[in-house]
């Protein structure tokens, strides 16, 4: 399941977040580059040969792998992924580019007078460019919130956490009501 030809070697520096299934760590790449990384570690308890890997984990890896081919500046980059059996459990690790803070932290550091209009416009423009890119590629994030919008110290906005995302397909069954709403002019619907 590894993304590159060789897995990235890194050392964990500090835990920076925790979710229902796992933890996120700040890490540093060992070797030449020494770049900072975000490492998401999930542990799937129980026999995965019967229950399988949870769908949200498969979706997140699949979508991030798809997005890495486009290298969009407003989507967090997946650098490596691995799944390692540990007894009857499975440890899934995602290695992502490290971004300093989320939108909540960024806003909490704003001056008392608030952010300037130019700063707000820049953040919103980058966020909308990322969303536009996702939507042009038929990806619905479905969990956009301040914790999943990351902002670097250089002001780069990145969309993260694709665990609830879906690829939009048109082979879904439409009920007669939905179909009617899709084809009738909005002025007639009222």
TrEMBL record:
Q: Does the keyword Transferase apply?
A: yes
* Pfam families linked to this entry: Pkinase
Q: Which UniProt keywords apply?
A: ATP-binding, Kinase, Nucleotide-binding, Serine/threonine-protein kinase, Transferase
Q: Which InterPro entries match?
A: CDK (IPR050108), Kinase-like_dom_sf (IPR011009), Prot_kinase_dom (IPR000719), Protein_kinase_ATP_BS (IPR017441), Ser/Thr_kinase_AS (IPR008271)
Q: Which GO terms describe its molecular function?
A: ATP binding; cyclin binding; cyclin-dependent protein serine/threonine kinase activity
**One annotated GO biological process:** regulation of gene expression
Q: Which PANTHER family match?
A: CELL DIVISION PROTEIN KINASE, CYCLIN-DEPENDENT KINASE 21
What name has this protein been given in UniProt? cyclin-dependent kinase
Output the lineage of the source organism: Eukaryota, Metazoa, Chordata, Craniata, Vertebrata
């Amino acid at each position: 399941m590894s993304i590159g030809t060789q897995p990235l070697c890194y050392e964990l520096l500090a835990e920076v977040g925790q979710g229902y299934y796992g933890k996120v760590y700040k890490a540093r790449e060992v070797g030449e580059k020494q770049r900072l990384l975000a490492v998401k570690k999930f542990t799937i308890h129980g026999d995965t040969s019967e229950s399988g890997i949870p769908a949200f984990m498969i979706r997140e890896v699949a979508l991030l792998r798809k997005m890495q081919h486009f290298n969009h500046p407003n989507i967090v980059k997946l650098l490596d992924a691995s799944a390692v059996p540990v007894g009857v459990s499975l440890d899934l690790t995602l290695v992502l580019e490290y971004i300093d803070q989320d939108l909540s932290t960024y806003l909490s550091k704003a001056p008392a007078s608030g952010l300037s209009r130019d700063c707000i416009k820049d953040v919103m423009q980058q966020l909308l460019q990322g969303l536009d890119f996702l939507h042009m590629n038929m990806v619905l994030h479905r969990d956009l919130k301040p914790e999943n919008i990351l902002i670097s110290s250089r002001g780069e906005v990145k969309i993260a956490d694709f665990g609830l995302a879906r690829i939009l397909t048109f082979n879904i069954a439409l009920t007669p009501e939905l179909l009617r709403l899709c084809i009738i002019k909005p002025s007639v619907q009222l």
